[in-house]
Design brief:
Helix content: 40-55%
Strand content: 15-25%
Strand order of the largest sheet: 1-2-3-4
Number of domains: 2
Structural class: alpha+beta
Number of strands: 4
Distance between the termini: 113 Å
Largest sheet: 4 strands, antiparallel
Radius of gyration: 46 Å
Shape: rod-shaped
């Protein structure tokens, strides 16, 4: 039986040599590519392992989960703030106090008028008049900053004092 080289003849030896060189070049090329893949994998592994050995993918997932939780908490807080703002609108937070002498025979400004109302001007004015023989207390409701009953000068002044404190910040403890 004749050998492969004898069968192919002189052209076959050249072809076989060329195929051997190409095969060797392919093996070298595969080795180079395998080394590059190994380098890339180690680079990706270093990237995905993060700084303290934590997996970056897990870190991103945890960050996304915390972000979703934060958004849910913000939604809850916004709803609570809206409720608080609605309640504050009707809170009687504007207060004005005026002290005065109701009668000529009593000094020391023991009488007073106090106005208390909310953002819409709804509330009340209370007046206490102190005399030697008697004490009187009057209460008048306010709707939109106005009373259905006529107001004394001191009561009107108490409303004006309360109105002037709207922009004043809260002080003290």
């Amino acid at each position: 039986m004749p050998s492969l080289i004898e069968t192919l003849g002189p052209v076959g030896v050249g072809v076989l040599s060329a195929l051997s060189v190409l095969t060797l070049a392919a093996i070298v090329w595969v080795a180079v590519l395998a080394r590059q893949v190994k380098t890339l994998r180690s680079g990706w592994a270093g990237l995905l392992d993060g700084v303290d050995g934590a997996n970056v993918e897990k870190m991103l997932h945890d960050h996304h989960r915390r972000s979703d939780q934060s958004e849910a908490r913000i939604d809850v807080l916004e709803a609570r703030m809206d409720t608080s703002e609605a309640k504050m609108k009707t809170a009687k937070r504007y207060v004005g106090l005026v002290r005065f002498d109701a009668f000529d025979d009593v000094g020391g400004q023991q009488s007073f008028s106090i106005a208390v109302y909310d953002e819409d001007g709804n509330g009340a004015v209370l007046t206490s008049q102190i005399g030697r023989e008697q004490a009187r207390v009057f209460g008048k409701q306010l709707y939109g900053g106005k009373s259905e009953v006529s107001l004394s000068a001191e009561e009107q002044q108490a409303i004006e004092v309360a109105a002037s404190t709207k922009s004043r910040p809260r002080i003290g403890t």
